[in-house]
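User: Teach me something about this protein's shape.
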Amino acid sequence: MNYKTPTKAIITDAGFASRYLPITKTVPKAMLPIGNRPIMQLVVEECAEAGIKEIIIVATREGKPIYEDYFNNAVNRIRKQLASQGKQDRYNPIQQVLDFPKITVIEQDPSYPYGNGSPIASARKYIRDDEAFVVCYSDDVVFGSSDVKTLIESYGAHPDAKSIIISQEMPREVLNKYGIIQLKDEKTMTLDHIVEKPAIEDAPSNLTSYGRYLLTPEVFEHLDPKNLGLDNELWTVDAITKMAESGKVYVEKTKGQWMTTGDPKNYFMAHLKYVFDHEDYAGDVKEFVAEQK
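Assistant: First, the predicted structure itself:
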């Protein structure tokens, strides 16, 4: 069955982010800033650039009202105050947020087990049976290109796909830290399976899989609480591997640069890159860093 081209994206931020405690007991991890905006906004912007019309953010119970406020609260009192001071232009970044595609925030179903597949399963009722859809992990940011756009363009070329995943070539010495792709056919770039954190000498390639997927509704057949994998968690890559057994899962290479914000060190690196690439004070930061040597 061929499915309709995606117009919806699921963005997940439903974990506890224990490596960021204590801050994440109050602030969702994807609300941490990169430049003058939260990580989540960068992912939403990537979806908007690709033409996505509706976004479902899956959050924790505590995170849900924070995302709802950020993406929907017009804070008119601030707008009026800025207008009275002749500083209307400072409201523009808020208006940009309000003008994003439709954003619905839901809580992850508390009955689902721990695992990165559970937020996707929690959004099942928002996905029609005849449409493909995009999934983004808010841990992952992409600079220089929209992976979501790449996924949608690839689906136009591969309407037989059960799924399409994005990959990035990584140095050999870090292959034991990520999910590594085993291709079924290098010519057609179709997936056989993904090896989670293999020993470096056992890595089947240098292609790392991360949180950018185009999925079809068939994935929900495998995102079942009974289908637990490593550490008794519900894994998205396990479901994708199951689809690869019965159909074609295509692998695309990112046209940008993927960076994870999954831990404080890598978050800082991503934040620094964003500042260097986008902020007018980048020169001052570079000078300051140089002075610390």
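Now, about its shape. Residues 8-291 form a domain with the Spore Coat Polysaccharide Biosynthesis Protein SpsA; Chain A fold (CATH 3.90.550.10). The chain has a mean pLDDT of 93. If you'd like, I can walk through any region in more detail.
User: That's plenty for now, thanks!
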